[in-house]
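Tokens as discussed.
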């Protein structure tokens, strides 16, 4: 039996820092970010199920959130202004991400690849879940901005405003409710969270 390098590679998520073009007071890596996205996605889907008497799979959504940036282990975290600079760059980067996802997949034993293929790759069949992963991703970025602004780092002020608008533009009642219910607490000190 040969060794599989998949989890050793995934472990390297902790070395890929986000917000590379920004002056950070506290670095955030994609491992930390992905955990938060998974938790937020899970909650968003549970809230959706409660609000709309639906039965979307919250655990599956959390799993997609955990691995949503896994390709960045290979590609690095390309800053948003670069990634979305124009249509050509966006499409080229999508191809690079797919190559990176396939490389990660190839690090798994053959008998496990079928289980991870639809976790590492976006699938239209799970579009509804992916909408909540994208929302969880933006909400996580909002909390990073709040953390930075809270300690006086105004570098994140514009990013915060842009992200809040992006979340509002999603026009997802569950996301709006999450913003109202959970996000204000990120502005509080530890003593005020009790």
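Sequence:
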């Amino acid at each position: 039996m040969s060794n599989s390098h998949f989890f050793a590679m995934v472990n390297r998520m902790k070395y890929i820092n986000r917000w590379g073009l920004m002056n950070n007071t506290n670095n955030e890596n994609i491992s930390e970010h992905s955990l938060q996205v998974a938790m937020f996605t899970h909650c968003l889907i549970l809230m959706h199920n409660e609000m709309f008497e639906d039965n979307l799979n919250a655990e599956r959504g959390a799993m997609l959130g955990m691995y949503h940036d896994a390709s960045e282990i290979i590609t690095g975290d390309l800053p948003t202004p670069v990634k979305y600079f124009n249509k050509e760059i966006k499409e080229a980067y999508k191809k690079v991400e797919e190559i990176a996802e396939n490389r990660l997949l190839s690090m798994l034993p053959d008998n496990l690849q079928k289980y991870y293929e639809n976790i590492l790759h976006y699938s239209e069949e799970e579009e509804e879940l992916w909408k909540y992963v994208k929302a969880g991703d933006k909400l996580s970025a909002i909390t990073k901005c709040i953390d930075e602004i809270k300690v006086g780092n105004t570098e994140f002020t514009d990013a915060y405003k842009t992200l809040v608008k992006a979340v509002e533009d999603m026009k997802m009642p569950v996301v709006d409710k999450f913003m109202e219910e959970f996000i204000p607490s990120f502005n509080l000190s530890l003593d005020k969270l009790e």
